[in-house]
Amino acid sequence: MAEVFEINIRHLRGLLAIHEHGSITAAGSLVNLSQPALTQGIAKLERQFGYTLFERLSGGMVPTAMGRIVIERTEAALKHLADSAQGLSNVFNNPERLMTMTQLRAFLALADAGSFAEAARSISISQTAVHRAVGDLELVIGTDLVERRGRVVWLNAAGKKLARGARLAVAEIQAALVDLAIDSDSRSELISFGALPLARPFIVPRAMADIAREIPKASFKVLEGNWNELVEPLRDGVIDIIVGALRPHEITDLYQRPLLDDMLVVAAGSQHPLASVERPTMDQLRAYPWIVAPAGSPLRNHWEKVFAEGPRPEAQIECGSVMIIGRLLTDANLLTLLSPDQVALQIRSGLLTQIGGPLEGSRRVVGITTRRSWRPTATQRLFLDKLEQAACERNSNPDLTGTWI
User: Fold this and answer.
1) Rounded to an integer, what distance in angstroms lies between the CA atom of residue 57 and that of residue 64?
2) 63 located within any domain
3) Last residue within a domain, chosen from 141, 168, 195
4) What is the average pLDDT across 364-386?
5) Which residue ranges does the record assign to the HTH lysR-type domain (predicted)?
6) Which of 136, 161, 135, 165 has the alpha carbon at shortest distance from 148?
């Protein structure tokens, strides 16, 4: 299978032109390629994708089934490029038509690395070549894309816009290569996603383990963080999925798919005086110091709602690390709010305990968030199915995670 940056964008434009007009002769003039050059370009694409992309019929050229896959992905890729370049250029009406994969590769490497030296190392070319490719791209756009201060480089507003479109375009072409991989047993694919806290204890690792067994060559890139830290990487195409608590409102460019409900509980060390109290009163809960989530977080907001009426208990410790919180609970008579899944192992081992039942009004929906424009590959669809299966397993057998909601 070819590497994505080996694909020629002009050849892809020729592919779309042939599909639209049914002949190489008509298509060649639209992409400024001679008929022999475009014929060779399509033949090269067919070698790179591993399939015949067109049937040569008396009435014209018709895409094969595999050709339609490449055409659909290419249309999406070039639309991402066009949208990201719109409004940036004062030189060309359609600057995306002049971009090359060499330019995009160098530009994205620079965006990721933050310096020309690191970008050059990451893609194994010279710094001069990176400078030249990014400079040529800026000439095509007609504006600066990066700001330089010594050896440090960062994207300006135009650069960020173009980088988002370029990443999404490259991802579409990569998806076409993966979809058409000739031998699925030897197929390798990177699944990039973000994991919010509620998904980390069970759903995510269960789905990853299933994929690892069924597709040994599949690999994962997992980013951990909160919603605000992961949503822009999702939009930029750095990751394709966020798994965790869904937002309680519609988001224009994102799609949210619910998987299961989660309710918060009060957690404490097994030595805590309230450990044996089946239904603690609010006064009993106020009598002990608490570990609370950082201000402004959903978990902190839930804690504030619990104690909205009457005095709040002492918030002795503010912390967002479940690992630190678990240790603190075993060593001191503290209370905290958590999802049972997050402390399931400690509960099963007897180190921690749940105080009372699930809290009223603390329901949170856990699910999957993706870009609305995203179309998963076969492996990515399988991963989504495995996440849904893990959620169903969790719902039907709460003891898997130590939860008794």
Assistant:
1) 11
2) yes
3) 168
4) 95
5) 7-64, 99-156
6) 135
267 phi, psi to nearest 5 deg: -115, 150
Higher pLDDT, 260 or 150: 260
Question: Mean per-residue pLDDT for 140-158?
Answer: 89
Specify whether 118 is located in the same domain as 243: no
Task: Give bridge partners of residue 258 from the DSSP assignment.
Answer: 367
Identify whether residues 244 and 386 lie together within a single domain: yes
Q: Per the structure, how many domains does the chain have?
A: 3
Residues 30 and 164 in one domain: yes
Q: pLDDT band for 340, please (50, 70, 90 cuts).
A: confident
Average pLDDT over the chain reads 91
Query: Would 24 be classed as within a structural domain?
Result: yes
Q: How confident is the model at residue 59 (pLDDT cuts 50, 70, 90)?
A: confident
Name the residue range of residue 300's domain. 263-362
CATH number at residue 199: 3.40.190.10
Q: Are strands 152-155 and 190-195 parallel, antiparallel or unpaired?
A: unpaired
Count Cβ atoms below 10 Å from residue 298 Cβ, excluding itself: 18
Same domain as 199, residue 117: no
How many residues are listed for the chain in this entry? 405
Answer yes or no: is pLDDT of 399 > 70.
no
Q: Which of 217, 236, 173 is nearest to 5 (CA)?
A: 173
Q: Dihedral, CA atoms, 35, 36, 40, 42, nearest 10 degrees?
A: 10
Provide the percentage of residues in the chain whose pLDDT is more than 70: 96
Cβ atoms of 242 and 351 within 8 Å: the answer is no
CATH number of the CATH domain containing 134: 1.10.10.10
pLDDT at 89 over 60: yes
Rounded to whole angstroms, the Cα distance separating 77 from 73 reads: 6
- Tell whether the model's pLDDT for residue 405 goes beyond 50: no
> Identity (one letter) of the amino acid at 221?
K
Q: Do 26 and 122 lie in a common domain?
A: yes
Q: Nearest to residue 33, comparing CAs of 12, 2, 64?
A: 12
Q: Are residues 82 and 140 in the same domain?
A: yes
Tell me, yes or no, whether 147 and 196 share the same domain.
Answer: no
Is residue 358 within 8 A of residue 364, CB to CB? The reply is: no
